[in-house]
Write a sequence for this structure.
């Protein structure tokens, strides 16, 4: 009787867990994540609005709109190849922490430990820096909200000083840390809200912005204009300026490996993990480009965007574009609040990814 039950139990075993058993990897976490929940976390970890919005102004200033617009296309194209390779490996090694485990196995017994160690530390440093920069971006957005809710820079609005900016920065980081003490189901629920908020809110912005803008740039300006802000950036080399303008794309199109870090908690991880990786890249690539186009077409005056005496104190270029388009601060205030919520959800998820990754490292004593 017991002999007849064993094949049935084996057939009912989750495909991801079965693959772990084949690798000699002990299953320790519960598989509660569905495809959509994993996709929501992977999508939210990637910085659609929270990457483009804070870096749009600096990237635009380096080499102008054409470099920014086509840079996104180029980076998205090559990111797809990285995603395909990562998805293929994820289907074979659906383990917690993923990347360091892959490095250890693919580098072979001689170089495996060193490769795994390097991979773990590089990703740890990268995520720490990523969380820090996003806390800075969130504080910058909150600074703009305070300015616009009390007036504008021209009307005596309150522009948060450095000490208050630092307090906002620390507070955001602490809030994300506390929220990540909750169960993964709670995190997944927040990310499901986040993905719909980003999709619906993003559609509202990219549709309304070009429609309400009184003046719009021509297609020739958006797709072919090359302008260098040498006086502001200090960069006189055209190739170097173009490379720097790619930063917004490179910074935004990352984090899709979050799905791989969650595979031990995902049902059918050997299939759903790779699907989440590729889907999140595809969605972000398309939505991000459309968002960049909407902002760039709606530019009223390029030089005025960076003027310290403008309505947003020249500190937040997308905010000034929105102000010029909506002809007032109320709608802009609502849009920036939406952007802050995007940032809140995205970086909360990135913190979750960091904690998940550290758990995997401790589990295998990589660091």
């Amino acid at each position: 009787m017991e002999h007849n039950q064993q094949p049935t139990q084996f057939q009912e075993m989750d495909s991801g867990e079965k693959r772990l058993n084949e690798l000699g990897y002990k299953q320790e976490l519960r598989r509660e994540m569905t495809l959509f929940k994993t996709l929501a976390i992977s999508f939210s970890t990637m910085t659609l609005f929270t990457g483009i919005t804070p870096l749009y102004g600096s990237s635009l200033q380096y080499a102008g709109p054409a470099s920014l617009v086509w840079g996104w296309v180029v980076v998205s194209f090559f990111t797809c190849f990285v995603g395909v390779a990562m998805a293929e490996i994820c289907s074979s090694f659906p383990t917690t922490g993923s990347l360091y485990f892959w490095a250890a196995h693919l580098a072979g017994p001689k170089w495996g430990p060193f490769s795994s160690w390097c991979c773990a530390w590089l990703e740890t440093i990268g995520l720490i820096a990523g969380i820090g920069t996003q806390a800075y971006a969130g504080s910058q957005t909150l600074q703009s909200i305070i300015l616009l809710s009390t007036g504008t820079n021209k009307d005596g609005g309150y522009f948060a000083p450095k000490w208050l900016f630092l307090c906002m920065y620390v507070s955001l980081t602490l809030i994300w840390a506390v929220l990540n003490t909750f169960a993964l189901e709670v995190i997944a629920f927040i990310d499901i809200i986040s993905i719909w908020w980003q999709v619906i809110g993003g559609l509202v912005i990219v549709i309304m912005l070009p429609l309400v803008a009184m003046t719009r740039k021509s297609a020739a300006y958006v797709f072919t204009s090359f302008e260098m802000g040498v006086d502001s950036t200090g960069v006189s080399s055209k190739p170097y300026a173009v490379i720097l303008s790619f930063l917004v794309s490179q910074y935004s199109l990352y984090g899709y490996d979050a799905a791989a870090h969650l595979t031990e908690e995902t049902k059918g991880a050997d299939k759903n993990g790779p699907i989440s990786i590729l889907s999140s890249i595809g969605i972000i690539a398309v939505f991000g480009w459309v968002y960049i186009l909407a902002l760039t077409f709606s530019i009223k005056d390029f030089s005025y965007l960076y003027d310290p005496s403008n309505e947003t104190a020249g500190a937040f270029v997308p905010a000034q574009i929105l102000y010029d388009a909506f002809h007032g601060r109320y709608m802009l205030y609502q849009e920036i609040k939406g952007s802050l919520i995007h940032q809140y959800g995205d970086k909360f998820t990135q913190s979750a990814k960091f904690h998940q990754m550290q758990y995997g490292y401790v589990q295998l004593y990589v660091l």
